[in-house]
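User: My instructor asked us to take a sequence, write out its structure as tokens, and then describe one feature of it. I'm not sure where to start. Here is the sequence I was given:
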Amino acid sequence: MADISAHGPDHACLFAVASTQHGYFTAGQARTCGFGTDLLTHHARAGRFLRVYRGVYRLRDYPSSPHEQVVAAWLALGRERAVVSHESALALHDLSDIIPDAVHLTVPRERRYLPPLPGVRLHTSTRPLAGGDVVEREGIRVTAPARTILDAAETGAGPEQVQMAIRQAARRGLILPDQLRAAARGRSQRVRALVESALSQMPA
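Assistant: Let's start with the prediction itself. The structure tokens for your sequence are:
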């Protein structure tokens, strides 16, 4: 998108950006749509924009959505460097009825010193996120189902939730059993056992 700040604020541009992100936008995105720092501050003080994190805002009147807190935290840590993961990714994929106690995000290990955000649990990845490990869902970068299940299992998600996620993902064609087994080989014995138990209970 071209920088059009010289032409003044473009509300349609900002709305279009925010609409792909559940009503949220970053200061950088607003600037691209012609909203400089002073104008952004003016709208925030007037209540038209709601500041939710440093550099992240919400259109006040945009309809709410179930995952909007996840979007806000993801934008605050950076669209390209953060990915929704673990229990939050299970919820986005609708693979579990678990209610996350925080927004779970994964960043590369070199980003582990990012400032903490309230309500966010930050994970750092020693296993690089390959191309197949990340998908887009509802406009959000999120770990793919197989990676999500293994990450959640490894960090202590309840066995029943992990096994439910495996069964649902397999039934919906989101994972292939042999591929999940292969991906689990590099994980702990506990994770491998959970995967094998869930897959063995499924009809052939």
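For the description part of your assignment, you could build on this observation: The CA atoms of residues 12 and 167 lie 43 Å apart. Try explaining in your own words what that tells you about the chain.
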